[in-house]
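Hi Q.,

Before the meeting this afternoon, I wanted you to have the adenosine-5'-triphosphate prediction in hand. No need to reply - just skim if you have a minute. The sequence and ligand are here:
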Amino acid sequence: MIEVVNLTKAYKKGTAVDHINFYIEPGEIVGLLGPNGAGKSTTIAMLSTLIPPTDGDVLLQQKSVLKDPSSLRKVLGVVPQEIALYGDLTAKENLNFFGNLYKMPKTQLKNRVEVVLQQIGLEQESKKLVKHYSGGMKRRLNIGVALLHEPQYLIMDEPTVGIDPQSRNHILETVKKLNEHSNTAIIYTSHYMEEVEYLCDRIYIMDQGRIIASGTKEEIKAILSSENTIVVKVENYSNDFMNDLLKQPFLSNINSSEGEVAFTVAKGMNFLPTLFSLCEHHRVLLKSFQVEEPTLEDVFLHLTGRALRN
Ligand SMILES: Nc1ncnc2c1ncn2[C@@H]1O[C@H](COP(=O)(O)OP(=O)(O)OP(=O)(O)O)[C@@H](O)[C@H]1O
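Predicted structure with the ligand bound:
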C-alpha cells in the first residue's frame, strides 16, 4: 500500500498542496479529481519523489520513501502530463532507449517491449517514427514507457488532455485492461469527471491544495442525497415565470437554457402543485420533467460554489 501523510508543498506565492492524506492499495484504481491548479501535478511530483515536500511523507508498506526513494521507483511507473519521447526514433526504439536507461536486462527488455506494444495497441505501428504519430498515439507510447518495468503502481497525470475522442476511449480501455489483467494499481488524475467516474473505485476530490471529499462514487454522491435535481422542459417561458420560480423558498440552483429549466429541491418535497400552478399562471407549456441523479460535478459545485471545468 502507498500512503500519503500530511503531504504539503508551499511556494513563496502560496501553498500548492496543503496537508493532504490519501492511500492506494494494490489492484485499485483511485481518481484524483480537481480543476486546473488544484494541486494534482504537484502532489504527483512529490508522490513520485521528483520534488521534495515541505512537510509530510509518502509511505510504501509503512516505510518512508523520502528516505529510500529507490524502493518506490522499483514498483512505480509515472506517466507525465507532457509527452517525453524522441520523435526521430520509432516506438520500438523509444521503448528500448528508456529500458536501457532504466538498466533493464537485455532479454527481459526484449520481452517487455513486445508485451507493452501489445498493451498500448501499437504493434502494427512500432516501426514508424514517433514524429509521424498522432497526439493520441504519442500519449499511448508515453504510457508504454512507464509500463516497461512492470510496475505494481502506475500514476497517470491527465493522460487524455488534448486528444481526439477515439484516442481518449482507447486510453481509457487500456487503463481498464491493465488493471483487470495485470492487477496494476492506478492513480488517475483528471479534471474530466466522466473519466474518473468511469474508471475509478475510489475518488479524492481536490481543490486549492486540499482534499475536499473522498470515497466511492456512491459515497461522494451521497453528500447530495438530501437533494434532487429536476430538469423541466417548457415552452413560452418568460422572465416573470423565472422570477416567480426564484421566489419559491424550497427551490435552489435555478438555471435555464434553450427550453430547459433546472433546479434542486429537497428530497421528498412535493414541488409539483407549485410548478403546475406557476405554469398555468404564466401560460407556460410544461412538456416534460425528470428527476436527475447527482453527478460528481454537482457535488463539486455544492462544496465549492464553482464548476469543475472553467
Ligand atoms: N514551481 C512552482 N512554483 C510556484 N508555484 C507553483 C509551482 N508549481 C505549481 N505551482 C502552483 O501550485 C498550484 C497547483 O498547481 P498544480 O500544477 O499542481 O495543479 P494541477 O491541479 O495539476 O493543475 P493542472 O491540471 O493545470 O496541471 C497552482 O496555483 C500553481 O500555480
